[in-house]
Amino acid sequence: MLTHNLRIFLEVANRQSITETANARYISQPAVSKAIQSLEKELSLKLFHRDKKSGMIPTEAGKKILLLARQMEDLENRIYQTAFRENNFIGGKLRIASVPVTTTVLLSKVLRQYREAYPYVTVEIKEGSPLVVRKMVEEHAVDFAVTYAPFGNLDAEILIRDEMVGILPPDSDTEIMEIGKETEHMILCRAGMETVMERLPSEQRIDFSRSLLVQNAETVVRMVDEGNGVGLISKFTLSSMSHHLRICQIQPTLDTQIGLLAYDLADLTPVAQEFARMMRELCAEMM
C-alpha cells in the first residue's frame, strides 16, 4: 500500500504546488514540505525542482519515481476493488482523462447514470488537449481516456467517427473551403490544430503560422460569428453548440475519430470496465 509520504508526493506532482496540495488535503504547507523532504531523505534523491513560473516540477529521478508511484496507486486501487467485489458491490476510484468536448457531450451523459448505479466509486476527471490526455494515459495518471485521435501506440477502440468542417458567417456562399488559401483568416482551437496537423497528408503540409489559435472551440464559433475570420472545427464538437453559422466542406478532407484509450483495454479495473461499457452503449445510440 502507498505510504503517507508517497501519497503527498503524488498530490504535489499532480498539482505542481505545495499550497494547492495542502489546501486539498486540509493540512499545513509545512506538513506537505516535511513529507516531501522525508521521502527525499529516505530515497536519497531530489524529487522536485522549484520553478517560480511552473511550480513544483519533478526531476528526472522524480519522474521515474512518479511513474512507479502511479503504478502502485493503480495496484492499490485494484486491490480494494477486488475486496469490494468479494463483498458483492463495486467501489474504489475511477480516473478518466478527457478532452473538454467529450467531457461535455459524452461523459456528462454517462456520469449521472454511473454514479446512481455505483455510489461507492469516486470518479475523477482530468481534462486536456488530445496530446496532454494521451500523455496522462502513458504516465499511468488515469485508468483510461476518452479523446480524439491520434492514439499513438496505446490500445484504442473507436467510439465515434468524426470529420473537420469549415464554419463561415451566415451570409457566406462558400461551398468548399480550401484550407491552404484561408490560413491568414483561419481560426482554430488547440485541440483542432493538433487534429489537423496529425491528419494532413505529408505532401499537403500547410503553414498555419498566421492563423489565429484560441483555447477552446466555443471561442472559434464566437470569433467567426463576430466576423473575425473563418473557422476549422470538428463536426461532432460543433454539434454540441448553438449557432447560426454556415457549415461547409473543406479541402483536403480531414477525418478523425473519438475513442477509448488505455494501456490495455482488456485489463481495465472493474469500475473502469463498467464506465467503458456505458460509454459504448451511449455512442452506439448516437451513431
UniProtKB/TrEMBL annotation:
Residues 1-59 form the HTH lysR-type domain. Gene3D superfamilies: 3.40.190.290, Winged helix-like DNA-binding domain superfamily/Winged helix DNA-binding domain. The keyword Nucleotide-binding does not apply. One of its GO terms (molecular function) is DNA-binding transcription factor activity. One of its GO terms (biological process) is positive regulation of gene expression. Keywords: DNA-binding, Transcription, Transcription regulation. Pfam families: HTH_1, LysR_substrate. Belongs to the LysR transcriptional regulatory family. This is DNA-binding transcriptional regulator, LysR family. It comes from Schwartzia succinivorans DSM 10502.
